[in-house]
Amino acid sequence: METHLPTYSAFVRTLAAEAAAVSEARFVLAGAVDRRSPLIWAIALLGAGAFGMLLTAMSSAARSIGLSLASHLIFVALLLGSVLPWLRPADQAFDPLAIADSLLPR
Length: 106
Description:
Radius of gyration: 24 Å
Helix content: 55-70%
Distance between the termini: 20 Å
Number of strands: 0
Largest sheet: none
């Protein structure tokens, strides 16, 4: 198996140099989709469902089961909300100047 690391390394370094030469180079990643909006909608719908469950449960005789179901919905909404910091917005552009030198082949 032959190695192509020297030519690949030269290609990546040339590409990084060209990108650094263009001060306003920003690339929108191809196929980037917004993953935050559907998740936020799901959290909002779970919250609305939990609120509706609490209102319905407090007006009937099934308070304990309604409170239990609403707490489960809120817990799932909290779990979904904990993922949000790791999801970047889809309109965030790729910055070639932000590539760390340690990630470039030597």
